[in-house]
Design brief:
alpha+beta, 4-stranded antiparallel β-sheet, two-stranded antiparallel sheet, about 40% helix, elongated
């Protein structure tokens, strides 16, 4: 049997018609965009899963503020709120959640007066801009939860609020009027 290299040397024009490595070359051309797209889809799925999980946990714990259950509990502070939110997020480790989650709970005079900017300064969450005031019965409350997410797929960076160093901000926000849990006059 005559080897392929020998045949190419015998006929110089045969190299242009050779098909031995065409599949490998085509795969090499297509592989980089394919894997970039695949990893981008996986990263986007993780971001949506994290965002949905944080939204559900924030809404569940904010409901406890709305009904007055949180204010009457033993852990009615920011650490108790963070612990409750992190406890409701089953797939994110509690220690990671507790160290990275930032919480801002404020009361307002009316829904029209609610104005909120992300508390980001110099690529970091500015803890001095965060407060924790769950309010009393009939108060209007804004609950915001911030979680920095580290991206693995750099092509997704332009679509999310940037914190620098490959981290982007996932935010969950809930606004509501506390229920009349003190049996006072009806809320107006």
């Amino acid at each position: 049997m005559v080897s392929g290299a020998f045949r190419v040397r015998r006929r110089p024009g045969a190299l242009a018609g050779a098909r031995g490595g065409a599949t490998a070359v085509e795969f090499a051309i297509v592989a980089l965009p394919f894997f970039a797209l695949l990893f981008g889809i996986l990263e986007l799925g993780l971001i949506f899963m994290a965002s949905t999980t944080i939204d559900a946990a924030t809404a569940a714990v904010a409901r406890q503020i709305r009904t007055g259950q949180f204010q009457s509990g033993a852990s009615d502070n920011v650490a108790g709120f963070k612990s409750a939110v992190c406890g409701a997020m089953s797939w994110i480790s509690v220690s990671d959640c507790m160290s990275n989650l930032s919480v801002d709970v404020r009361t307002f005079a009316s829904f029209a007066s609610i104005a909120s900017q992300p508390p980001v300064k110099n690529g970091q969450i500015d803890q001095s801009q965060l407060t924790f005031s769950p309010g009393a019965a009939c108060d209007i409350v804004l609950v915001r939860v911030f979680y920095p997410w580290t991206l693995l797929a750099p092509l997704l960076e332009p679509g999310l609020p940037d914190l620098g160093s490959g981290q982007h901000l996932i935010t969950s926000t809930v606004a509501f009027r506390n229920e009349n849990f003190s049996n006072g006059p009806p809320c107006s």
